[in-house]
Amino acid sequence: TFFPMLVNTVAGLNASSSIERDLMRTYAASYWETLFKLRLPAAAPFIFNALKINSTLALIGAIVAEFFGTPIVGMGFRISTEVGKLNIDLVWAEIAVAAVAGSAFYGVIALIERAVTFWHPSVRGGRA
Fold it and tell me: Among 54, 61, 65, which Cα is nearest to 1's?
């Protein structure tokens, strides 16, 4: 989950146009002022997209990691154990719980994104 975050953050930091950066130089803005007032706000939608992607990837990674002999009794451990017992009903129940949890994680981050980047056209309903 590191690389999707890195790639999206770098793309977001480079999303501001040269005209906007020139305007900040015209205002004699320091590097830090340009970072906090121009580049990070421009990167916020990219960062939140990476967080939404990573929230589901982290859940998938945790479940898959639990398949391989972990002492922690989590969703992956239960799924692999119950498949061995041919208890398919419980396997599908665990998969459904994982899907709901992943959707909830995604939804929470999407709500935070709407609150933080209310000014962005993608949140207002326009085109980005």
Answer: 54
User: Which of these, 42, 44, 50, 34, lies nearest to 115 by C-alpha position?
Assistant: 44
Is 91 exposed, middle or buried (CB count within 10 Å of its CB: 0-12, 13-18, 19+)?
middle
Q: Which two tokens stand for residue 17?
A: 């146009």
Residue 73 phi/psi, 5° resolution? Answer: -90, 95
**pLDDT, the chain, mean:** 90
Entry pTM: 0.81
pLDDT of residue 126: 59
Give the three-state DSSP class for 29. coil
Domain range list for the chain = 2-124
Please tell me the distance from the alpha carbon of residue 109 to that of residue 128, in angstroms, as a whole number.
19
CA distances from 122 to 49, 52, 53, 90 (A): 11, 15, 17, 40
Per-residue pLDDT tens over the stretch 7-41: 999 999 999 999 999 999 999 999 999 999 999 99
Contact in structure between 40 and 15 (CB atoms under 8 Å)? no
Give the list of residues 6+ apart from residue 20 with CB closer than 8 angstroms, or none: 38, 42
